[in-house]
Design a protein that fits this description.
The complex is a heterodimer. In chain A, 72% of the residues lie in helices and 0% in strands. By secondary structure, chain A is mainly α. Chain B is globular and about 60 Å long. In chain B, α1 crosses α2, α4 packs across α8 and α7 packs across α9. The chains are: A mainly alpha, B mainly alpha. Chains A and B meet through α1 and α2 of A and α2, α3, α6 and α9 of B.
């Protein structure tokens, strides 16, 4: 059985059993030659300079847009963060009675205190000017 | 046409020149009509359909000749067009004739039995039935390899599949055909 299985294709051979009318290929060629004149060749469309560079322009614009957005967001965030003195703290320091309370229990860093002291010293110096 | 009359490099040069283009394309038709016909015929079985698809193949190649850049071989390009045309035809016919996947290719066998241009014996008829039960890609690979004895590298260029995958497809196809014959013994 196994031998039969292996032999089946070699028994059949490589001839599929199809045939064509006599002189089919010769007649086909001459018929096609006549047929070609009824069909126009599609002209090759060469892409314009704009079409060729368009993807690169779009990509550059996209990256420029992203860069601008990042720059604007950074700038907005920077204005908020670079504020030298926390206004809530300054308001608290206006009332001398609250200072110790704020220093003990408030969320105040040493930097805030130095900044405050500097600003007070500057104000006093300004006041002493003749 | 004798093989020595056909020089593909010269033909491609002539195809690029509008004055010699039509003459060169006639040489292409003479050279490739027979191998392309057999490729199409083994796919669609019926002679008249194969004839129509062959004509369509050459017309498509002719009107798009400016899009042939010469990166691939002319034969590869023509085979691709012929196979695409055949697959499009088969898909249309399947939609017309079949209602289930099991009888997907039964119309091909029916057309083979009714085809006056088939003179194979019973064994060849059974082989065609076995081939037509294969999935489309395996059928293509089997036909190209077994009947045309085409190299896997050439098939790879035409079908856009790796050589390894083609060898596996051919192996599976042969096994299914052998199993088909075992089942009818």
């Amino acid at each position: 059985m196994k031998k039969n299985k292996q032999d089946i294709l070699s028994r059949i051979g490589r001839e599929p059993g199809f045939k064509v009318p006599d002189n089919f290929f010769e007649e086909f060629t001459s018929k096609m030659e006549k047929e070609l004149s009824n069909h126009e060749i599609i002209p090759e469309v060469k892409p314009s300079v704009w079409n060729r560079i368009r993807p690169y322009i779009y990509m550059t614009a996209m990256f420029a847009g992203i860069w601008c957005m990042m720059w604007i967001f950074n700038d907005l965030a920077g204005v908020k963060d670079n504020s030298p003195i926390n206004p809530t703290i300054v308001a608290g320091f206006q009332n001398e009675d609250n200072i110790h309370e704020i220093m003990l229990h408030g969320d105040i860093s040493e930097y805030d205190i130095y900044t405050y002291e500097d600003s007070v010293a500057a104000d006093e110096a300004f006041m002493e000017l003749p | 046409m004798a093989q020595q009359d056909y020089n593909e490099e010269i033909i491609i040069e002539e195809l690029r020149d509008s004055e010699t283009c039509q003459k060169a394309f006639s040489k292409v038709i003479k050279h490739y009509s027979e191998p392309l016909y057999w490729q199409i015929r083994r796919m669609v079985i019926d002679h008249d359909n194969a004839n129509d698809i062959l004509q369509e193949t050459f017309i498509k190649a002719w009107i798009n000749i400016n899009h042939f850049r010469g990166d691939a071989k002319l034969s590869t390009w023509l085979y691709k067009i012929a196979i695409n045309e055949s697959i499009t035809f088969l898909n249309k016919e399947r939609n017309k004739h079949t209602s289930s996947i099991d009888e997907e290719n039964s119309f091909l066998i029916n057309s083979l039995e009714a085809d006056e241009w088939f003179d194979g014996d019973n064994l060849r008829l059974e082989l065609q039935k076995a081939i037509n039960k294969l999935p489309e890609k395996q059928r293509l690979v089997f036909n190209m390899r077994y009947f045309d004895e085409m190299k896997y590298e050439d098939m790879s260029e035409i079908l856009g599949t790796s050589v390894g995958a083609l060898k596996a497809s051919y192996h599976h196809a042969v096994k299914k055909i052998e199993d088909f014959f075992s089942s009818i013994d």
